[in-house]
């Protein structure tokens, strides 16, 4: 299963995660893709409920372009376009050669500790 882990990490924990990924890459092992945010607010600002719904829909209907996607989700084209751009930047969506969208991951794991990240 191809998955990405999204986490809330403080600066020390983020540096430690980067160092682990670097060591794995140098050893020729594939590291699990990760996105890290400094706070739960940043995470929820970037990965909203509407954006997760959009990713789920694209995952089930690969190759859709933005206008048909907006229609299927019954959302305004401009808002869907903005969400798609944000998700492309995060790597949670990708475009094919014809502009069709697809979700590169089968699973998104979101992790946020209860204690403040160090």
Total strands: the figure is: 5
Percent of sequence in beta strands? 15-25%
* CATH class term: Mainly Alpha
**Whole-number total of structural domains:** 1
CATH superfamily: Winged helix-like DNA-binding domain superfamily/Winged helix DNA-binding domain
Description:
- The protein is of the alpha/beta class and 118 residues long.
- 48% of the residues lie in helices and 16% in strands.
- The protein has one domain: Arc Repressor Mutant, subunit A, CATH 1.10.10.
- It is globular.
- The chain has five helices and five strands, in the order E-H-E-H-H-H-H-E-E-E.
- The relative contact order is 0.23.
- The strands form two sheets. The chain has a three-stranded parallel beta sheet.
Strands, helices and their partners?
Blueprint: E1 3-8, H1 11-26, E2 34-37, H2 40-46, H3 49-60, H4 66-73, H5 77-90, E3 94-95, E4 101-102, E5 107-111
Helix pairs in contact: 3-5, 4-5
Identify the notable features of this structure and list them briefly.
118 residues, alpha/beta, Arc Repressor Mutant, subunit A, two-stranded antiparallel ribbon, 5 helices, 5 strands, 48% helix, globular
Tell me briefly what this model is.
The protein has 118 residues and is of the alpha/beta class. Helices cover 48% and strands 16% of the residues. The protein has helices at 11-26, 40-46, 49-60, 66-73, 77-90, and strands at 3-8, 34-37, 94-95, 101-102, 107-111.
